[in-house]
C-alpha cells in the first residue's frame, strides 16, 4: 500500500491517494481543492481511481470531487448525514452525485487488494467517518496530532466528538494516523499525549 499526501487549498486539507501498488487501483480521500494537482498525480503514476472517499461534507474536503469524479468515473462515497440534500443545510455544500453511494459504520469497500473499513466518528460533523485500511487510519477532522476537530460549527457536538475519540482509541493495536489537516501521527502517541483522547478514554 502506497499513501501519498497532497495538501490542497487555502486550509491545506490533506488529500490522500491510497494505492494498491500491485494493480495501480487507488482511492482518493478528501479531494478538497486543486483538482489539477490530484489528477496530475494520478496520470503521472498511471493510477486508476476507483473511489473517492469523503470523511465529511465540509467545503474544504469536497471542493475537487466533481472534477475528479467526472475525469475518472470513480464512485463517490459520503455518509448520508452530511449530504446537503439530506440536511437542507447551507453549511454542508456537497450533494452526492448520481454515481455516488452512501456509506456508514461497519461498511467495507475493496479497492484492488485494499480493504477500507468505515468507522462512524461524528462530532465535528454529524456524518463524520474515519477509514481504516491495513495499519492506516484516516481520521478526517475527528482526530488530529495533539488535538481534535472543532465542534462549534453547525452540526458539531463535543460529547459526540469525545465518544468518537474513545471509539478510535479503543481500537486494538497501533495505527498510523492520517488526519484531515497537519502532520500524521500514531494512535499510540495520541492515546498517550493527546489531552482530548485522554479525556475521552477516562470518561
How far apart lie the N and C ends?
A: 35 Å
How many strands?
Answer: 14
What CATH architecture would you give? 4-Layer Sandwich
Silhouette = globular
Which sequence of SSEs, written as H and E, runs from N to C? EEEHEHHEHEEEEEEEHEEHH
Find the CATH superfamily.
Answer: Ribonuclease Z/Hydroxyacylglutathione hydrolase-like
User: What's the number of structural domains?
Assistant: 1
Strand order of the largest sheet: 1-2-3-4-5-6
Main beta-sheet strand count, sense and barrel state: 6 strands, mixed
Mean pLDDT: 97
Supply the helix-strand structural class: alpha/beta
Total number of helical segments?
A: 7
Taking all Cα atoms into account, the compactness measure Rg is 16 Å
The percent range for strand residues is 25-35%
Q: What is the third-level CATH name, the topology? A: Metallo-beta-lactamase, Chain A
Reading off the top of the CATH hierarchy, the class is best stated as Alpha Beta
Unreliable parts:
none
Considering DSSP H and I runs of 4 or more, what fraction of the residues is helical? Answer: 25-40%
The gist of it:
The chain has 203 residues and is of the alpha/beta class. Helix content is 26%, strand content 31%. It is built from seven helices and 14 strands.
